[in-house]
Amino acid sequence: MKGNLLFFLLVVFQVNAIFAQQDDLLTTFQGHKINSALDWEMERRAEILYYFEQEIYGMQVKIPSSFVLQRRLVMQEEVHYGTTSVLHQEWSLVWRDTLKGRIQMEVPMTLFIPREQAVKGVFVSLNFYGNATMDTLKSIPFNTAYIPANEKFKIVNHQLTEASRGTSAWRWPIAEIMASGYALATCYAGDFAPDHRAHFRKGVLQFDVHSRRFNRHASGAIGAWAWGLNQMMTALEKSPTLSKSVPRIVVGHSRLGKAALWAGVTDSRWDMVISNNSGCLGAAQSKRPVGEDVYRITKRFPYWFARRCRHYAKHEERLALDQQMLLALVAPRPLYVASAIQDEWADPEGEYLSWCYAQEVYALYAKSPKTPCQFPAVNQPQILTGLPIGYHVRKGDHDITMYDWKRFMEFGDLHFH
Ligand code: GCU
Question: Domain map of the chain by residue range?
Fold first, then answer.
């Protein structure tokens, strides 16, 4: 009884960590100045990561230690995109509970590898409506988890249909990616956490040790998606067809861009991190009153974040500094941020500013040239030799397009070759 009461009190009066207001990326919450990469990593990086876990995305997903990740090759075939010969593989990622001796979760992963050249890097990305929407190949199996209703992707009763095949192909220029020597792996985000406030726990969060208790710092869907991306990398590392030395690039669009950033930040095995139109609580500044704000995002999508995040709705001034803190956690690894000029909801200029301010931390690692914070012209990418971070704002609206992918590959070529 006493124990229960204590537990209840702990739950109700959870002590929140105090994060002081900041206006400097290189000053700790205790007021210490950071002057070196070592101090950054030992002191400031760790406390900022903790801050984002507690206040925004929730604690990193942790599944019971009795779970093991296994991979099964379901199918492989040779396909051609133009003149490029490509190995198409279908994998099943399986989490087996070794204590209970049963499979707890199973997620299909689609992988494309160019065959006739050394692979320059592998893009790892989640998709919004199922793997089969990315291409018309009949050999891509249907995901069976809940899929949000959407006429454009021919989703019927929250499931894929034959007509769904290839309906998001414009977002996945496989031919160009393969011809440029990059591999591409994708999973359906909804397999890790369905994108719905009533169902989001039906993926990995049902096993998350932090989510089991009534905990306002537990992960939301973005954390589950990020976890999924990190697990995909683990699975790929064991791939017999993709050498371990192939650079791993995590990339995502919009809400999945927020997840790609959080994956890049929480797992330093990623060699490059790319955010496309990630907007509010992604790359965009939260304190700039432009586009989506914390109130609107947490009202419409409360389950994307830790419950604690609502504390900042209509009170962005309570946030310690801003999203440059998140981008800076990627340093010193190459980071690319992409915006679209008509994507006002995501605040392109706010995305640019976070990117630009994050350079302060990159400068601790190398004497890289800092670009002055001046919003560039449309379709004038900032991809410069010696600059570890890249940016573009393209013409057009909220989307991930061929233009974006081509810049990501240029950025990859610059850093990996
Ligand atoms: C909504 C949401 C954004 C999100 C976007 C998307 O517009 O408000 O935060 O990035 O959906 O994922 O397409």
Answer: 67-416
**Tokens in use for 207?**
């096993």
Element holding 224 (H helix, E strand) = helix 221-237
What average pLDDT does the segment 93-122 reach? 97
What's the gap in Å between 53 CA and the centre of ligand 1?
Answer: 21
Q: Quickly list H helices, 267-391.
A: 294-300, 324-328, 348-357, 359-365
Residue of 292, 298, 299 to test ligand 1 pocket, by largest number of atoms within 8 Å of CB:
292
Find all residues with CB under 8 Å of 226, minimum gap 6, and list them: 57, 60, 61, 259, 260, 262, 263, 266
Rounded to the nearest 5°, which phi and psi values hold at 292?
Answer: -65, 145
Query: What CA–CA distance (Å, rounded) separates 132 from 111?
Result: 12
Domain 67-416 class, CATH top level: alpha beta
Identify which of 345, 347, 399, 400 to mutate to test ligand 1's pocket (most ligand atoms within 8 A of the CB): 345
Contact 55, 19 (CB under 8 A): yes
Question: Relative to the CA of 398, which ligand 1 atom is closest?
Answer: 13
Q: Is there an atom of ligand 1 within 6 Å of 205 CB? A: no
- Catalytic: 239? no
Task: Tell me: pLDDT of 10 over 70.
Answer: no
Burial 102-114 (b: 16+ CB within 10 A, else e): eebbebbbbbbbb
pTM, two decimal places: 0.95
Closest atom of ligand 1 relative to the 257 alpha carbon:
10
With a 6 Å cutoff on the Cβ, whether 254 touches ligand 1 is yes
